[in-house]
Amino acid sequence: ELVKQVANAAHSSGIELAGENAIEQYDTTALDQTLFSARTYHLDGLTFLRLSEGMFSGENWEHFMDFMKDMSGEEESKEKEIQEDLDALHGEVGSVENTVGRIEALSIFIAVLVG
User: Which H helix or E strand runs over 65?
Assistant: First the structure.
């Protein structure tokens, strides 16, 4: 309830509000809930935390790509650009030591798409 009150106050006052995911989950239910919350609370940005190797395994990557497309709200003409960016990010997955840089890059990417 408090989050809803803060989000409504920020939105009605023209103050930008950003959020973040709290748990490392990549299934469609969790990503759909994140998308729903971002739209419900009129978020201007979203930091996607806990970028890990698990995100790129199995169907998780495809779920995340669909989530990014939904978050961006862009037309099909932008889908190719988004796909290229996501593929480039996917290709950069390497050692755990590089995780922080990937998280920062992804946070900026998501903020640009949502903004």
Answer: helix 60-72
Q: How many CB atoms lie within 10 A of CB 48?
A: 21
Please identify which residue in the block is written with the tokens 């755990």: 96
- C-alpha to C-alpha distance for 51 and 70, rounded to whole angstroms: 19
CA distances for 76 relative to 46, 69, 80, angstroms: 22, 9, 7
Compute how many other C-beta atoms are within 10 angstroms of the C-beta atom of residue 14: 6
Sequential pLDDT tens for the chain (115 residues):
788 888 889 888 888 988 888 888 888 888 888 888 888 888 888 888 877 888 888 888 888 888 888 887 754 545 566 667 777 766 655 544 455 556 666 666 666 666 5
User: Rounded CA gap, 27 and 62, in Å?
Assistant: 10
CB 56 within 8 A of CB 98: no
